[in-house]
Amino acid sequence: FDELKECDERHISGPLAEHFGIPVTDVPADDAWPLKNFPENPAHADGPFVFGHHTLLERGFETARAEGVGLMMSGDRGDLVAGMGIYDLPSLLRTGRWATLMRELSLLAQRRGVSIANQARNELLRPARKVVLPPGSPFARLPLLRRVANPVPRGVPDWIPPHFAKTTGLGALLADPSTHEAGPARRLAVRRRYAAIFGSMHMRGVTTSERMHARHGQAFADPWSARPLAEFALAVPPRVLNVVEGPKRLPRLAMTGIMPEQSLGALSKIVPTPLFRRGLRERALDAIQTLLGESLAERRGYLRVDRLLAHAPEEELSMDADTALWMAITLELWLRRVAGRS
Fold first, then answer.
1. Helix, strand, or coil here: 44?
2. DSSP reduced 3-state for 47
């Protein structure tokens, strides 16, 4: 990335490649926004899931194929196994480490742009309520307890037709998303880790990665998908893996003395969101209008295009709005493919 410099990672990858003697081929990325190649249809017949950065990924895989690469190793699930915003703050409360608890709550609130009280509710009150008043017990549904310990329930977006929301049970899912936290563990952090590792959306992402590589004649390997690693991540105390003050704590400790300190200290999660928005907000507007102007999804009663698009100017910096728009686009691409109209 020469233009969208906030997306560039060469300050991390460059020293690593030099340290280990790995040859480097830069892949131009500033113009690889989503729908760059429209009307090419990236949707697979099995379902509408398409990576938001599929154009950039495809360009990278094409470059690798041209250089004779036959196996690509990925870190697709590294965040799911040992990172993400999954922290066990209740353990700090139980063990009386008040200063550390307040420091981590403050850091979380600052990162997420919310109040410390909001983080205390989500990270402390909510887990406590699940232990003291497990779901299903009569007192767990008392309005006061639900209001104090739970986040404000999300309603069904107005761009989802009410009949479709009712027939799919979408309202109940959004009203109490905690019912979908998988795993039998008592600790909320472990249940969240389980849901991250084995969640259907992430499983679908790995499947999509394998298929994208296969189209370019490459085998795909993700060492983070190894079952022993998943078992380990679910067996150890959550704070061994990840703490607010040191994200991905364990992988970083494991690489001490192996990776150069310059790179290890600079590691951060860089997501090319500006590239994604460059497509959705600037460069792919004609393609979006072509796709959603005569929407098969709307005709079938899945969404209301006018109301979906109305949210864009109001929520210009909202990733939720962009994600909803992208999912509507990929649904449309898939419907046109399976309907023979791609």
1. strand
2. strand
| Residue 58's pLDDT band (cuts 50, 70, 90) | very high
Where is average pLDDT lowest: 127-141, 165-179, 190-204, 226-240? 127-141
Are the CB atoms for 273 and 19 separated by under 8 Å?
Answer: no
Identify the CA nearest to 102 among candidates 246, 241, 245. Answer: 245
276 contacts 52 by C-beta, under 8 angstroms: yes
Q: φ and ψ at 219, to 5 degrees?
A: -80, 155
Distances (CA, A) of 239 to 160, 189, 206: 39, 9, 26
Residue 257 CB contacts under 8 Å (≥ 6 apart), including other chains = none
Angle between helical axes of 305-314 and 285-293 (0-180°, round to 10): 150
* Rounded Cα distance, 131 and 95, in Å: 17
Residues 85-98 pLDDT 10s:
888 888 888 888 88
Instruction: Decide: residue 121, CB within 10 A, 0-12 exposed, 13-18 middle, 19+ buried.
Output: middle
Phi then psi dihedrals of residue 186, to 5 deg: -75, -35
**Greater pLDDT, 186 or 218:** 218
One-letter amino acid for residue 148 of the chain: V
pLDDT at 200 over 50: yes
Half-sphere exposure of residue 88: CA atoms within 13 angstroms, side-chain side: 20
3-state class (DSSP) for residue 219: strand
